[in-house]
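Hey team,

Filing this mostly as a record. A colleague (T.K.) asked me to run one chain through the structure pipeline before their review meeting, and I want the input and output archived in the tracker in case anyone asks later how it was produced. No errors, nothing strange. Just documentation.

Input sequence:
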Amino acid sequence: MEKVKVIISDRQHKFKVPTGIRMLIRRCCAASLAEERFEGSAEVSVSFLDNAQIRQLNAEFRHIDSATDVLSFPLGQDGVYDVNPETGAKLLGDIVISLERADEQAQSFGHSLRREIGFLTVHSMFHLLGYDHEEGLESVCMREKEETVLTRLGLVRDASYVMEE
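Output structure:
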C-alpha cells in the first residue's frame, strides 16, 4: 500500500466527535489495507451520522426501517476499483457510522467508544474490500482479520460480545 486518503465528515449534530477519533479512523483504514496487502493508493470516505440519518439510509438502501451502527457502500467489485484521475488512488467507497449507536453499543458491550468506532471502521473496510459475513467460513475469516487489525492497533477485545438478558 502506498498511501490512504481518508475523508472524514461530521454530518450530525447530536454527538460531539471525541478527540482523537479522526486519527483512530485513519489508522484503522490504513491497518486494514496493510492486513490485506493492498497495492497502490486508496481513498475512503467516512461520515458520522445520527440514528435518524442512518435509519433513513438503511431503509433506502437495505429496505430495513431501523437505525444501525454502520453502513458500507463499496465502489469496487472483485478487486477492481474506479481510480481518481488526479491522484491515481483507488476509490474504495463510503462508510457511514452512527455515533449515537456506537456509543450505545460501547456501553452495552462494556468497552470503550474508541474500541467500538475502531471495530466499526475496520469491519466496514473489509466490506469495502469485498468481504461479506453472511456465509459461514467467510464470516469467520472476516472476523479473524478484524480482530488481528484491532489487536495491532491496541484495541483488544476486553469484554464478550454476548449480551446478558
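Quick notes for T.K.: The domain at 4-152 is CATH 3.40.390.30 (Collagenase (Catalytic Domain)). The CA atoms of residues 7 and 143 lie 25 Å apart.
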